[in-house]
Design brief:
Layout: H1 3-20, E1 30-32, E2 35-37, H2 39-47, H3 50-55, H4 62-72, H5 76-91, H6 97-107, H7 109-114, H8 119-131
Antiparallel strand pairs: 1-2
Helix pairs in contact: 1-4, 1-5, 5-6, 5-8, 6-8
Length: about 140
């Protein structure tokens, strides 16, 4: 997978989690091939000028900055798995994490396999999401 696609996946998931922690980002997400996806966000990052990008600011509370900083260090597959799990969990309240992990494992089987990962990787991601208070 090329770096441009990896960066777009990370950007989509980063904004997804930013919205989840309460930042006023104004994007709606639907489940898509690589997890939650906002077509409006994609449109925005394809059409933003360098001037707009450089002048953009957002006041982010310190506790949220720490969470987002942790997520920023993660790779695209991690972000994709994390956001897919969270999206499924949000849409299926009361369903156990184990059932949701199985669902993510099924949905992401090909992506996980191509990256040499398995269900244990998803379990690790879910555990880390819990530590970050995102799950």
């Amino acid at each position: 997978m090329n770096g441009w696609l990896e960066n777009r996946i990370k950007a989509q998931k980063f904004v997804y989690f930013g919205k989840k922690v309460g930042l006023p980002l104004g994007y709606d997400f639907d489940i898509y091939l690589y997890g939650p996806y906002s077509s409006k966000l994609a449109d925005d990052y394809y059409h933003i000028s360098d001037e707009e990008w450089n002048s953009g600011t957002l006041d982010i509370p310190e506790d949220i900055k720490q969470t987002l900083s942790s997520l920023k260090r993660m790779d695209a597959l991690y972000m994709e798995v994390a956001a897919t799990f969270d999206s499924l969990k949000s849409a299926n309240s009361g369903v156990s994490d184990n059932v949701l992990i199985d669902a993510v494992s099924t949905l992401k089987h090909n992506r996980l396999t191509e990256k040499g990962k398995d269900k244990a990787y998803i379990q690790k991601v879910v555990k880390e999401l819990s530590k970050l208070k995102l799950s």
